[in-house]
Amino acid sequence: MTLLFNKQPSNYHKLSMLFYCRLLILVLLFYSNYSFGFLITADSQQVINCTEEVQIYADEAPLIINEIPYFPNLWINQSISGLSNGPFNKGKWCKLTIESSVAVDKILCFKYTLIPVFKLWIESNKKDLEIINAGTKSDFHQEENNYNFRGYSIPLSFEAGEKKEVYYFMNGEGWPTHTDIFLYESKTFNNNVHNEREVINTLRIIVLVFLTLGLIIGIFTKKKVFIYYAISFYGGLLFAESELGFFLKYIPIELEQLNYVIRHIANMVYVTFLMYFYYYISDKDQSFRKVLIWITPGIFTYTIITTLLLVYISNYIVVASIFTSIVLLSWISFGLCFYVLLKQWNKNNRLAKYTFIVFISRLFVIAIFVSLPHMGIIERSNFTDYLYYIFITYESLSYFALLINHLLKVYEEHNSLLISQKNYEKEYSQAILRGQEEERNRIGRELHDYVGGNLALVNKSDDLGDREIKEIISKTIKVVRDMSHGLISPTLNSINFKEAILDLGTRYNNGNMRVYLQFHSWPESDKSENLNHCYRITQELLTNAKKHSNATSIYLQFFGEKNSTIGRVIYEDNGIGFDMKKINEGIGLKNIKYRSNAIGGDITIESSVYGTFIRIEDINL
To answer: Among 32, 220, 448, 560, which residue's Cβ finds the most Cβ atoms within 10 Å?
Structure first.
């Protein structure tokens, strides 16, 4: 018998052999099953769910002769859970028996697309055997009749009393496979395909519109959280499209693996950028940032290596291992996101709380309807195709609404700060004008009472000797010099700033008040304007201390760090202090606050009857 099949028979012998092979199939099936399994009556129902009526072949594989399978052993009446295969499951042989008492045209529909190898044998008790090659490795999806359907649709024509045996074989070659089987009337099927296409197109448009809006907002507002949101869900949408076979009708048969590569890369983009999205939602959590710095290069390297393996190696163990690793990596990233969002929930981060609720619902959906079925643990639901789009739409709209609400609040706070800043600047300008007026009055009084008085004394007195005149003139010169030093800003740079500060301290040193100055790694700087602010802040501190503090000791320290342009100033005295409730009333302190703000400093003031402590941090030099 083996030799006979290996010869090159004539056409007559070929036809005879096929006839006897088909007859043998029917005989073997009859005696091995004693029945045709679960019988489906096609008759007049518009839609019949055939999934639970499928039987599974008991052995791994039948005997195949000239592409015709022989089933010598039993079929098993399998529950619905038998139609989902994990990545490590090998091909599965199934049988479906359909009978119609009337002449009718039906469409047998398999509701899943990414099946690399999918072959059908349709045997009728009145017609010859029909063999159909489908799957992603065939040109099935590029045929005109199947162009717009996500799955496999097989037309079946029944005569009155005709019974059909549908045998089919699915092999994922390392990818998970699923299928739900329905028997449609032609009109119902066409309406179903049209309605499904309309729903998915609508959801697709909604998602694309909001993602594009998010990307535009992110670019123009320079808010990275919007950019990561858009890129992540672009990846999610691309994953859904490739998962449901959208690209198969455009990809040449010899490049069918490209659809799986797109699916893989899209999943990695979705997972990676989603983590960065949650990082910005969580107020740039520093512990999560360290994890991202470590894990991002790893994901990038992993994606490149696994993509090359998918392109150049077709071994199903390799493919299944890659798919399983993708699932595990995705769940590790979800676990990290869960941790950081829960951490922010505990910190009462309002935005993170709403995001956490959406995140938890997504984890539930992914686990029940995507991850577990893909691993072959539970059965895939027949509405999962819709679920991809529905949930991407739900997530993208939810996050977009949260981000827009957050952005509006940020701009409200920004506007409030601007108003406060303008009011502050207005008050400061008024204080400066008052201070200038007071300073002019003080200078006028000094010139009139002291300088003018001394000069008048010298001019009108005839009794003064040369020594007394010189003494009066020397004191007058000192007063004028002190006044001029207080009015003229020194030309400062990193070289003479310390000298100017030391000179300032010397001038305020006297018998009643000692000024101690120290510099600790004060950074080099050529920003003369910022150095001038530091000089004036020091001058204001010493002036206030001299006028109001009654301090006997003042300590001023200037700190910096190596290889940094950030400095800080610390002031301490042992004076009588001042009332902290009236801190904003003094012109001097307002001036100090304004100048500190101008150089990026953060000022802290503490005062009591034991003295005053002022710290100015983060000075930009």
So the answer is: 560
